[in-house]
Amino acid sequence: MADDRKKLSMTLGESLRQQGVSRRGFLKYCAATASMMALPPTMVPAIAQALEKAKRPSVIWLSFQECTGCTESLTRSHSPSVENLIFDHISLDYHHTLQVASGDAAEAAREAAMHENEGKYIVVVDGSIPLANPGYSSIAGISNLQMLEETVAGAAAVVAVGSCAAFGGLPHANPNPTGAVSVGEIVKDKPVVNVSGCPPIPTVITGVLAHFLTFGSLPELDALGRPMVFFGQSIHDRCYRRPFYDKGLFAETFDDEGARKGWCLFRLGCKGPMTYNACATAKWNQGTSWPVESGHGCLGCSEPDFWDAGGFYNALSIPDSDLTRKTGYVVGAGVALGAAAGALNRSTRAKAAAKHETVTIDDLDKKS
Ligand code: SF4
Ligand code: SF4
């Protein structure tokens, strides 16, 4: 315990030197961190200076209504590796799935981390919070709502990891039997960053934590509370199939000639035009590939209400919560859709929104 306290009081620079990490190796890590956070190489000395002085922040990870996919995603992160992240750069003091302690000892670890790091620790949450009945999801006899409120009270910041924590996700899907809500609907008096995705990209989770560690603050956020550096552009904006979309060349089935030639998957249900995430650039599995590259359309997993967006294989099925913004995007892509720009009439949108129907390419092609 005394050793643990000593480790926590050391700066990161001291800790790395103690572990025999060379100055060169440290700067290499800083360069990798800058690149992950999409910062220019000129920022590397500033990052090195900040990290040199940084103390390992305490992290309390709370898992509520979720499938553990977000933790699975993080434990497959590679840059920096999760071992690096957990053991060298943060102090992961509570995590149901990864911790050895259980029962009273586990809860005691959470309470100790809260008291010893008052005002400084980070709370990571995956999963949504059921409000319909506290008994729907509880840990150690404590409801998710109570655990969230008491843990967040002394936190510096909250990271809502995954679409369930960020937007309610699958538990929130119609008819939302548990009354699931997002973290942001409960926590109003602390900075909250949404790292959405089902699951989120591991480098995005670690990138947000690295940003906090480096600058002592959360990165710039978009209108949905997501870090701009990773969610600032749509999947469609960065998709390598985009030239085919712009030329109006679409695969009609998963095994036709268009699919074999790598044409755009829009008509097979790709939600890339209305989905903001870094998959096309960060990729998955250590940068190996991503869904659209492997031949499947984007499901829109990082957007609110994506489970209620109609069929995954229907072109442009849209959650009614955001119909205007998303159809507006398609109207803007008039070149690709031929006559679509002038065709999407108000009544089509209004009717679809009212009935929560899919808006298809054919609908877009109809004249007003
Ligand atoms: S619709 Fe999908 S496959 Fe086509 S260019 Fe956009 S993101 Fe890529
Ligand atoms: S490609 Fe789309 S559905 Fe797939 S992980 Fe990325 S954002 Fe989610």
TrEMBL record:
One cellular component (GO) term of this entry = ferredoxin hydrogenase complex
The residues that hold [3Fe-4S] cluster are C279, C298, C301
Q: Which cofactor does it need?
A: [3Fe-4S] cluster; [4Fe-4S] cluster
Which compartments does it reside in? Cell envelope
Origin species? Candidatus Thiodiazotropha endoloripes
Binding residues for [4Fe-4S] cluster 2: H236, C239, C264, C270
According to UniProt, the name of this protein is hydrogenase (acceptor)
Q: Which domain of life is it from?
A: Bacteria
User: Which keywords does this Swiss-Prot/TrEMBL entry list?
Assistant: 3Fe-4S, 4Fe-4S, Iron, Iron-sulfur, Metal-binding, Oxidoreductase, Signal
Reactions catalysed, as given in the entry:
H2 + A = AH2
Q: Where is the NADH:ubiquinone oxidoreductase-like 20kDa subunit domain?
A: 67-211
